[in-house]
Amino acid sequence: QNDAEVEGVYSEIEQKWGGLDFVVHSVAYAGKEELRAPFHHTSREGFRTALEVSAYSLITVTRGAVPLMKNGGAIITLTYLGSQRAVPNYNVMGVAKAALEATVRYLAAELGEKAIRVNAISAGPIRTLAASGISNFSEIFGIMENRSPMHRSVTQDEVGKSALYMLSDLSSGARGETTYGATGYTTA
Ligand code: IMJ
Mind listing the pLDDT tens digit for each residue in 48-87? Predict the structure, then answer.
């Protein structure tokens, strides 16, 4: 939420390295209440915070990175299927991720001429701090293990490999995409 802090990081990178090849944007936040209460009770303030931290921040992070990507570069962000489907309790985070995925498309369209690629990875549910305290998380895990073609949930290593693809020349044709690394659950 602090643009000056982000700019500070980039000026340090500029001084130390003189340029930048890629950025991983991996930040999201919604108030606890917003993830628990009925969605139609989402407050104006809760909506604003979730969208600002989870979607607008990609614009701030990209704006600072562009001048450093002198020979082009790659920017990725992390998203979740709750942007496309109504997932129980994901609530305003789903709205924020939909905004994030649209932001990826607009940034990708604009930065194509600078050879900067912007894409998103939609990982499946992973047991992390961001997943802790979610009431029906085990249930969501179970559904994934039942329905996905491989009958298991996605691993952190698999998300890492998708990131490697998106950040490297292997994905030179990918722009503005949301790639699903969720062991095929999305299409099953
Ligand atoms: C988060 C909430 C509800 C359902 C959820 C999740 N499902 C999954 C997540 C089904 C997979 C995890 N996820 C993809 C997220 O993007 C989580 C974001 C998040 C988590 C918290 C928890 C602590 C808090 N605020 C948060 N804001 C965003 O206070």
Answer: 999 999 999 999 999 999 999 999 999 999 999 999 999 9
Question: Measured in angstroms, how far is the CA atom of residue 112 from the centroid of ligand 1?
Answer: 31
Residue nearest to ligand 1 atom 5, measured at CA: 90
171 Cβ contact partners less than 8 Å away, ≥ 6 residues apart? 74, 117, 119, 165
Instruction: Report the distance separating Cα 25 and Cα 29, nearest Å.
Output: 13
Residue 109 and residue 30: Cα distance in Å, rounded?
28
Q: How far apart are the first and last CA of the chain?
A: 37
Q: Which pTM was predicted?
A: 0.96
Distance between CA atoms of 107 and 66, rounded to whole angstroms?
11
- The Cα–Cα gap between 154 and 9 comes to 32
131 Cα to the center of ligand 1, angstroms: 5
Per the annotation, the verdict on 10 as an active-site residue is no
> Which residue has a Cα nearest atom 12 of ligand 1?
131
